[in-house]
Write a structure and sequence with these properties.
Strand content: 5-15%
Distance between the termini: 62 Å
Number of domains: 2
CATH architecture of the largest domain: Alpha-Beta Complex
CATH class of the largest domain: Alpha Beta
Order of helices and strands: HEHHHEEHH
Helix content: 55-70%
Largest sheet: 3 strands, antiparallel
Number of helices: 6
Mean pLDDT: 90
Number of strands: 3
CATH superfamily of the largest domain: Ribosomal protein L17
Strand order of the largest sheet: 1-3-2
Low-confidence stretches: none
Radius of gyration: 24 Å
Structural class: mainly alpha
CATH topology of the largest domain: 50s Ribosomal Protein L17, Chain: A
Length: 167
């Protein structure tokens, strides 16, 4: 029996598994929201929430502990100086996991993991940025042209296949 197993292995040995978690922690701290598999998101939540709790202290000892766990100075600096102060009054639960359906290739369940105070960047369209309708028109024409070329290529491939079958 496997009692007290506290971590997922993800089919990796200890070194690559640690590297995976370090990379995911760095990405989440840098971007505020990332998309990954549900299992990785649940495991990542553990690591990120502990790091934020340690970072709340903000002293040299906390920084050294975080650098030992996540050897990326930029990430640790961001954790201690930016993220931890945002959650100073919050006793825990700094992240949320939002399920996002299955991945197209292998049907793995995917999820977004983000900080609870995450604000997505404002959606900007080409029209609202500059009001340049000419640019929008050119992009549409380019898209139509690419679609037409793709259709032509498929017709040629189909004709070639028919010809090769009849040989």
């Amino acid at each position: 029996m496997r009692h007290k197993v506290k971590t997922h292995s993800f089919g990796r040995r200890q070194g690559p598994r640690k590297a995976l978690m370090r990379g995911l922690v760095s990405s989440l701290v840098e971007h505020g929201r990332i998309k990954t598999t549900v299992a990785k998101a649940k495991e990542l939540r553990r690591h990120v929430e502990r790091a934020i709790t340690i970072g709340k202290a903000g002293d040299l000892s906390a920084i050294r502990v975080l650098l030992k766990k996540i050897p990326n100075k930029k990430t640790v600096r961001s954790l201690v100086n930016d993220i931890a102060p945002r959650f100073k009054e919050r006793p825990g639960g700094y992240t949320r996991i939002i399920k996002a359906g299955n991945r197209t290739g292998d049907q793995a369940p995917m999820a977004y993991i983000e900080f609870v105070d995450y604000q997505p960047p404002a959606a900007t369209t080409e029209e609202t940025v500059k009001g340049d309708k000419e640019l929008v028109k050119k992009k549409r024409q380019a898209a139509r042209k690419a679609q037409k070329a793709k259709k032509h290529r498929r017709k040629m491939q189909e004709a070639s296949r028919k010809k090769n079958r009849n040989k």
